[in-house]
Amino acid sequence: MDGSSSKYGLTPEPPDPFKSKRRHEENKKRKNESKNKRVVPKNINYFHRFRNKSENRDFYSEIKNKTLYDNVKEMLEMLRSEYEINEFVGKINEYSFRHNVWKHFVKYVTVKEFCLAEHEYIDFDILLPNGYMITINTSTRSTLEQLKKEVFFQANKLKFNKRLLSMDNYLFVMLAVNGRKENIYDESCQLYVYKLKSPILALHQPSENVVEKKLEQDIGVAVGFPIDQLDQKISSEAKLFRVSLFEFCVTTIADRCCSGNGHYAFFEDNILELEYKLSVKSQNKIEDKKMIAKVYYRSFEDEKNEIDTKCICVDVCNIISEDKESGVVNIMTIPQLINFTLKELKSMGNDITEESKDFVLQIVGQKMFMTKENIPLTSFRYIRSSFDNNCTPQLILCRKKLIYRNLQPFVNMHVPYYVRANRKKEEITHMHLHEDHGDTRYLWEFEEDFRFELDTAGNVSVYDSEQRIFVRVALTVGRHVLSQRDSTQKSINDPRWRGYKMDLGYYLKDIPPAAQLSFALVSTVPKKNGKAETETLGWCNLRLFDYKNRIVQGRKTLYLHTPTTQNSDTYINPSGPEGMNMQRGSHPRIVVYFKDYSSRSRKIHVKYPEIDKIKKYVSILKSNPKLSEEDKAIDPKTVSIEEGKKLKKYLKYLDGTALTEGDQLYLWKHREYICTHFPNLLVVISDCKTIWKSREHVSQFYELLTRWGNISVEAAIELLDNRQRDCAVRKFAVDILDNWLNDERFKLFIMHLIQGIKYEPYYHNPLAVMLIRRALLNYQIAHRLFWLLRAELEQEIGASESVNGKSCRLTGETNIEGKYTLSVVRCTIMLECLLRANVRHIGPVIKQVRMVNELFKISNEVKNNTSKESNTKFLQRRLKSVVHDMEHVESPLNPVVILGELCIEECRVLSSAKQPIKLVWNNSEPLARLSKKTHQMIFKNGDDLRQDMLTLQVMKIMDAFWKSMGYDFCMSIYEVLPMGFNIGMINVVQKCVTLFEIQTNEKKRSVSLAMETACVNKWIRKYNDDTKLYLEAVDRFSASLTGYCVATYILGIKDRHQDNIMVRKDGRMFHIDFGHFLGHTKKKLGINRDRTPFILTDHFLYVIAKGRSQFKNNHDIMKFRENCKDAFLILYDHSRLFISLFRMMLSIGLPECSTQEDLNYLKASLMADVDKDVAALQFDNIFKEVTKSDLSTKTNWFFHSVKHM
């Protein structure tokens, strides 16, 4: 420790007792002297276990006269090791005869009273797991971990250590006061902390330790790197988070359902919230009795043996029926459908003894069931989508007992060593060593300004002899700068300030809990013209209050982050991540001193007051007659209608910094009215700088937050982006989401919520806990959360490694030394707890991880293939060698899908620059041949799929909004899953082709490179030759085109050529490959290739017009335009949400979604700054411009054809 440590009365740590050569020699000399005296003065006392005696009895006095031999024998009996007691005693005797001191001491010397505190050094007798015993002389101030290292260091010198495993397989065991054996799980404390009454310890391998090692190994394989040493690498805050999250998981899984259709891993088809409204086509089908469902039945033996070749089919024609007299529509429920089916089966002569309650319905080809009894069949997503798409629903009768027996039963979580250590910590740790020891005082007790001292800077690069540096520091809350100051400038050759007072002129009591200090180290070089050239060398944000709301004290060394272009003007970066640069190395650093309120004799913690104290202060404040007018709230009863309308207009403000100080004070004075009448204004009012400037405002705001009205889900998500850093506000938002989001809606936002964790200042936070809780209660969420967290982990580690040219994959043995950042540690702990709680699912997860690792290896081999063998043949040959790792495994994209046998002959390497691999598996579900025979996926290596996933996830949210308003735009949103650094999997949409493939087929009959206007219409008619089928296909094409035109326009999706647009055989079109969005376009010779807001060519309009040559002003085109406008205005109403979702993703590291300019593009496309009527008019004009001429798109497509034909 340097000399500065004594500045604030810090006590230096004791030296390592095993690193001092001098002490080692002294101890060795002392031992030799004791051998010559033939009498070994030992100050020891050993325990003895007595059965059937009171636990409170003190046994020390009863064993003082026993010899060491007798006490060791008692200890060995207690340990019950794999060795027989006689073998133990024999080994002790054997060792004793070889060493005279042992022979005399073991047999003849009786023990004396032992007191650890009286000696600086002590001899510990350690019983090894192989039956031998050695003596270690050590300092009483050494830790148990240091003692263990010394034990194994000495044991390795002897011959009898051959059967010893590595030391992390063993635990120390001591005898407690009551004579019982007690494992010591926490080895980090010094010896005098433990309540040892004798210096005899035993090392053994407890049964739970064997289980723990196997579990840690499996978790390490799943996560991607070993976690057995994690506890030694992380901070005390992270350790506490690890323990508390584990304990939370224990209570959560105890409450979750593990049986029947409520099982957390039982997959139930989604229930749609909307009532089913019959369309004209559906009405006609009812009258024609064509709205039917097929239900299949098989015998008990066939179902048990998974045979589906002898199924009996029943056609149910009255799923939906209408009473002709009253016009009432009747829709079957699940029990009614099962009863009807069983009745029909019995009428066919089938002998069925089971009752209807013994069955559930499974969707053909899917591991998805329908069991909800009182729900109309048309409220199930599968039934609804089947009828809407003119398909016949196909279901299978399955016996409940056969289905439910495959569900995992409840299993208690294995308690790891670090949790056991924490549970014992309070029992074995002296109070003065506990981190919470000392006195607690509150921030509001101090009457002083906030200040600290600037000491030195280091690791600063010198590139000019006249270079000088200074430190800029700002007191900030989120983006708001409350106070700012620059230090004096120092020469780059002597960057020392030594006690320089940094007084921000801010009263200590006024500092809010969310306050942070934003540091920037700035270099300045004077120029001849009198101006100076400045450059930010690094920045860092330091939270002033820790995870226990205690203000920072003492010396802090801050390693700075590399500067970005976003903080080039202000130098500081308050919106950046909190905490210093964990990689350290050669990064610049600064050293600062905060006031230490502790004394030499007593530690003092200074905390921010709890909510109870805040409420008391607020009540005193409100009763104060001298309260300023600015702090008084307007009575909600006196607010007029005009003032209410004015307040409502503030919801349009997307940025609190755009509000004037007068606007902020106006909102603040109406806070009581806003709290109850416009609770969504919390998004705006919490982003006002004036809220955080004084203790009076902060305390009243916190008190008001305890009785704030319910806000919308959209507002809650907006409160979790990078602008809001106050923990109380974020917790309020998390509670809203947890209460109002069902599992299906929760899945829509899980990707964004994971990014929201990055803006949490502490390891333990409500958002992380909520994600874990929802995952433990729903296995589909758990599966998705695992892969997204693992991809996030690999992305963060892999990004830094790839820059250095190293491997960037987590393979299970990856070394992440030096990369334990807050984000990495938090993701690792969340993954660990998720896997520990779902221990029965670790096997399937590991199989998925190994499959991905094998595909990554094969993909690299394919890319490096130089043999004459084609890449596809090479791929198929390699797949045969690893086929056992890739069959009968849950799909990483969706655990509902079980991948059956791998169809190696159908797997191939696609003709693309990154050479993606197309993989095909058989569908192993019963009767899959009737619906979906195979599961097809694409494995990509070399592309960052996070942008594709973000785009498609936002499209899912758009589709949910449209459906909630009664619009079904037949969106074909496929699954994309990033699985690490530039790797991932994509679900293949079957029975579809690209526009380029359609054009290529037409080219066989034409020599033109231009795409014929009628070619898409011809292709749709080819696969829908019946007039009725063709008209239905056109309707689906028109609906899907509406959705994708609006979605691609708002998201600014570019690079739209013929290979990025596909059409399905049933008429639906969709877009793929979203490599460029938010207006980022590809350029050719400096010219933008995409010059239209969205793609709408004559080829598409010709289909909408059903092949009519005069289609520009066709009625169908007019209707299509109105649908597009309606779809846009629905999304316009949710502008704040979409902007917030992309703001949350700024931290993900996508080049095209990283700056404020990218968000500004989204604001412009959503027209968020104008009224709804104006937005409708502007979109109408954009539509007219797009349909006026498609020359630029046709030109782009022409050159794409020239390149690829």
UniProtKB/TrEMBL annotation:
Residues 309-399 form the PI3K-RBD domain. One of its GO terms (biological process) is phosphatidylinositol 3-kinase/protein kinase B signal transduction. Residues 903-1191 form the PI3K/PI4K catalytic domain. Residues 16-36 have a biased composition (Basic and acidic residues). Residues 1-37 are annotated as: Disordered. GO terms for cellular component: cytoplasm; phosphatidylinositol 3-kinase complex; plasma membrane. It comes from the Eukaryota. Residues 118-207 form the PI3K-ABD domain. Residues 633-814 form the PIK helical domain. One of its GO terms (molecular function) is 1-phosphatidylinositol-4-phosphate 3-kinase activity. Keywords: ATP-binding, Kinase, Nucleotide-binding, Transferase. Pfam families: PI3_PI4_kinase, PI3K_C2, PI3K_p85B, PI3K_rbd, PI3Ka. Residues 446-595 form the C2 PI3K-type domain. Belongs to the PI3/PI4-kinase family. This is Phosphatidylinositol 3 kinase-like protein age-1.
